[in-house]
Amino acid sequence: MKQVDVSSQKDLFQFTRLDERIFDTQFETKPIGYFKDAIIRFRKNKASVVAFFILVIIILLAIIGPALNPYDIKYMNASLQYLPPQSNTLSKVGIMTGTKYFNAVPYATLERRYDMDSIKWMSEPYEQISVSGSRETIRTVVDILVDVYAEKFKPTDLFISGGPTLQQYIESEFYISHEVLEEQITAIRNPVTGMTEYIDTSTYLVKVNYLGEYYSQLSAAGYSFRDTSIMPSFWFGTDGIGQDLFTHVWTGARTSLLIGFYVMIVTVSVGVVWGSISGYYGGTVDLLMERFTEILSGVPWLVAMTLIKLYFEDVPFFRANPILLIALALVITSWIGTSRSVRAQFYRYKGREYVLASRTLGARDRRLIFKHILPNAIGPIITASVLIVPGAIFTESAIAFLNLGPSGTIISIGTLLSNGQAVLLSSPHMVLFPSIIISLLMISFNLFGNGLRDAFNPSLRGVE
Amino acid sequence: MLRYSAKRIMLAFITLFIILSLTYILVKFLPANVIPIELLMEKGFDIEAFKRQYGFDQPVWGQYILWVRNVFTRWDWGISMQMRMGMNSFDVLFEKMPTTIRLNLIAFFISMPLGFIFGIIAALRKNKPLDHVISLFVILFISIPSFVVVTLLMYFLGYKLGWFPIQFPPSNVSTLEMLRGMVIPVLALSFGPIAGLTRYTRAELTEVLTSEFLLLARTKGLNRRQSVLRHALRNSMVPLIGIVIGNLVGIIGGSIVIEQIYGVVGVGQVFLISLQTFDYNVIMVTLAFYTSIGLLATLVVDLSYGIVDPRIRMGARK
């Protein structure tokens, strides 16, 4: 290769920026911190993002859900028990139609037992042989699909009095026009359906052409009309005492989520403090604290719940806040996991040079713990705390199924499921909706938690 | 290893003893009528003599010492006072154990091979459609609570299709009827473990499949099938053994919730009834049972890790 002697060709070169002072230039890109980095990674995980939005929707519904329909949590109407789900919009596409399927109904008494208008579908009559003891009976039966809402809310003409009503005048061939003299509409409660109905008791002046024009003054007391805008529509159906299940499911979801969040808050705070002290100080302190957690972790939740229920159920505070009793039972062992992972982080970092440097500069224990070591554990703590919530919801439901919870009026997903279980065969909707909600909650919390774990700790990605 | 194991076992026993002592004292301090009503109604029943006979006249501490001595020296857990009057409370529990264990063992032997197979398929077909399908089912069945699964099975398989009974049959029915009755609880008990095992197997196998020694095996001329069967599978099974053994121990406790929902007369029912009737001795023996199962499962898993990989000492000091 040919060598070029640069020094002899100085005029080929020239100095640039000779009269400028040169500084480090500002980064053109934005700095990406730990959390930002994690968020970017989290966003790439589509399933977790979807799960996050489902969670947000469920939490929102748990907050505002009960207010979305006219029935509040105290609404109760015993004559409307076990109504199937019905929605005016969704029934057009064939779901939540408010119908119920009845198997093998005796054909002979069908008309007496059901309003024929409300039967939407009927099978061909067939014969059914039932054996009781040595006797065999053959009956003709049919399968029917009944619109339960139409059956319950068949129009009832209240207070039918003699004489023509306004409606009858309007429909008659003599009618010309009418005007209101004195408006009076009375709201009354229909004793059968419990719905509010409106009775028109206004006085009208009706102009008719009956053998020449004349006016008739009419008090339309016989005329009752129904405000169809408040025709009941229980989206999730009703339960055994005619309470609206939609309101109850979302109230229950709220309770379950609240229990989850209470457990999470206590778990994280106790776990972090315990793990920090145990990990930072080590030695005898650590040994004693570890033995304590070891013993506590051996207590099954069944035992913890039993003892706590037996001891604290009658304490006035827990009587007023029964969900805290369940939260307390769950907290007893749940913080141990968090405390262990925090402790492990402390053992990993407390001997590092940067900690030593800070200590040499005179930093106190508190500063070392909170400023220098604990932030290393933030990722695992956030992940663990998210995964605690579905665990708590699951255990709460199990407690409700076993009837181990406080005997009282907790409305949670667990108690709804447990109540619905008793009437599973006749009213499956009572189990269906709580089941869907709890399954969605568990799936989304798990997916969201997994996404967070991968985001905070990319080295774990793909594992599990 | 031997010393380490002995130490772990000792510690587990001490933990068990402390938990049980605390539970005993806490349960005993609760006010409850311990004398069966049937006896109180009897004419000429001597309450004081009865109390003296079973040590109820002593303070809680005295009763505790008596209880510990009986359990340690004669394996006598005291008699049942309410559920099965006069029967040894350990027998009350033991009587119901076969049903629970049978159900859970069947579930175990179904879920273990299926979990492995699905896990292996998912790992070998990683990021292919089949893997995605399996992973979807894994996340579904890990998340959906077993009590929802058993409810669905009861409604559809039991009620709508009528294939299986909707409640666990009593013990006096024919074998065929019994087998039919076991299908729903066994299914409900299997889905979760299958999903869990699939996930672990997939994770382990994926890791092994990307390791260098497998590349070496391929380089020296083994085909994919040979390398997977002879090298990858064997190595990935190692960490899974602990999980499988842990599952096996855990099944003795059974799933109390599924038993309760499906009406299985098992260990769970003994516990719930003893709690309702406040049968002290039976409560204690069932609590002891559940606590020891939990401790045993942890212990076995930790020890099996140590056996499989001697470098691991779970719970050992730094």
Polypeptide structure, described:
The complex is a heterodimer of chains A (464) and B (318). Chain A has 464 residues and is of the alpha+beta class. Chain A has helices at residues 34-44, 46-64, 110-113, 148-152, 166-171, 245-281, 283-297, 301-312, 316-320, 322-349, 353-360, 365-373, 378-401, 413-422, 429-456, and strands at residues 99-106, 119-122, 126-132, 135-147, 175-182, 185-189, 196-200, 203-209, 213-219, 223-225. In chain A, strand 3 (126-132) and strand 4 (135-147) form a beta hairpin. The longest helix of chain A has 37 residues, at 245-281. In chain B, 76% of the residues lie in helices and 0% in strands. In chain B, helix 1 (2-28) packs antiparallel against helix 4 and helix 5 (89-124) runs parallel beside helix 13. Chain B contains 13 helices and no strands. The model of chain B has no long low-confidence stretch (mean pLDDT 81). At the A-B interface, helix 8, helix 13 and helix 15 of A face helix 1, helix 6, helix 7, helix 8 and helix 11 of B.
List the helices and strands and how they pair.
The complex is a heterodimer of chains A (464) and B (318).
Chain A: H1 34-44, H2 46-64, E1 99-106, H3 110-113, E2 119-122, E3 126-132, E4 135-147, H4 148-152, H5 166-171, E5 175-182, E6 185-189, E7 196-200, E8 203-209, E9 213-219, E10 223-225, H6 245-281, H7 283-297, H8 301-312, H9 316-320, H10 322-349, H11 353-360, H12 365-373, H13 378-401, H14 413-422, H15 429-456
Antiparallel strand pairs in A: 1-4, 2-4, 3-4, 5-8, 6-7, 7-10, 8-9
Helix pairs in contact in A: 1-15, 2-6, 2-15, 6-7, 6-10, 6-13, 6-14, 8-10, 10-13, 11-12, 13-14, 13-15, 14-15
Chain B: H1 2-28, H2 37-41, H3 47-54, H4 60-74, H5 89-124, H6 129-143, H7 146-160, H8 175-209, H9 212-219, H10 224-253, H11 256-262, H12 267-277, H13 280-308
Helix pairs in contact in B: 1-4, 1-13, 5-6, 5-8, 5-10, 5-12, 5-13, 6-8, 7-8, 7-11, 8-10, 9-10, 10-13, 12-13
